[in-house]
Specification:
Largest sheet: 8 strands, mixed
Order of helices and strands: HHHEEHEHEHEEEEHEHEEEEHE
Number of strands: 14
Length: about 300
């Protein structure tokens, strides 16, 4: 059995994560020739190729990508051991990496955590559900708050709340005086839509399909703020979770009705979007992550479990 040297694995992992030898050498605080030699020794000792080298850029081979999945777990566990031995539970320092598909549902908890543990550095990534889940699976994020969570046994989840999805238009729009809009009234109307990966858009499009209503998407934009501005300029109506609608005197939110229900789901008479606290079940929370999760008192559960 071939011997694997720790320093060589560490060198491989650093290059794979940094995407190049120069950045990895800086992170490890060693010279680039030393780093290159360690990776070369790992490949030669085992008769494998882990990187495709193209000038200053490197790309993982298929074997390298598989090895990276192992070294991610290895060095994450090493970090856990170091944190335990250093008794960081005082939370006088440390790092907490969080993700969310919207800042609205997580910033209150982030602010509370900071008040309790001001010495912990917090990094918050905002992106769509796919990007944030990738961060959890890659061990880059400790926990996340998401609207769309797949049925995956690797995840521990807890529903935090549900908010209605509403329509919004400019204040001068004819609909602005309505108490509610029936989905049938939207037939043929112009809409400003989020990107195709948006949970809000997906839920709304399913409601349109159930009602057999077709709208005209005149503009597709990748942010809530840009959609809001486009609607304010009169390009079309928009839809959004009520909790994510910031006060804007130019716009009016209007409840939707006649929506039906999702297949197999309850008919609440309104279209709703849930928000979930999510973390990776196989990963032991760091002291900082433990303290953050404690702000949500009910225990998380595996996705799809009763």
């Amino acid at each position: 059995m071939k011997t694997i040297i720790y320093a060589e694995l560490r060198a491989f992992h650093a290059v794979a994560m940094a995407g190049g030898f120069t950045a990895a050498a800086k992170q490890l605080r060693i010279t680039q020739p030393t780093l290159s030699s360690q990776v070369a020794q790992l490949e030669a000792r085992n008769g494998v190729t882990l990187f495709h080298r193209r000038g200053r850029k490197v790309e993982l081979t298929a074997l390298g990508a598989s090895l990276l999945e192992i070294t991610r777990r290895l060095f994450d566990l090493e970090g856990e051991a170091a944190a335990l031995l250093a008794a960081e539970r005082s939370l006088a320092s440390g790092k907490l990496a969080l993700g969310a598909d919207s800042p609205h549902h997580i910033l209150g908890r982030v602010a509370e955590f900071h008040r309790r543990h001001p010495g912990v550095r917090i990094a918050l990534s905002i992106g769509n559900s796919e990007e944030i889940l990738a961060g959890l699976f890659d061990y880059r994020l400790d926990a996340a708050v998401l609207a769309d969570v797949p049925d995956d046994p690797r995840l521990l989840t807890r529903e935090l709340h549900r908010d209605p999805i509403v329509l919004f238009v400019p204040r001068e729009h004819a609909w602005a005086k309505k108490a509610a809009i029936d989905i049938k009234e939207l037939a043929g109307q112009k809409m400003v839509a989020r990107e195709s990966g948006s949970v809000t858009r997906a839920l709304f499009e399913r409601a349109l399909a159930r009602a057999k209503v077709t709208v005209e998407t005149v503009l597709e934009i990748e942010s809530r703020e840009a959609v809001r501005e486009a609607v304010a300029q009169g390009l079309g109506f928009g839809v959004i979770s009520a909790a994510e609608m910031s006060p804007d005197p130019r716009l009016k939110m209007i409840p939707l009705r006649g929506l039906g229900s999702e297949k197999g789901g309850p008919d609440r008479g309104r279209l709703e979007m849930g928000e979930y606290l999510v973390r990776l079940g196989e990963r032991r929370p760091s002291p900082a992550a433990d303290a953050f999760l404690a702000l949500f008192p009910e225990p998380a559960r595996r996705r799809g479990a009763a």
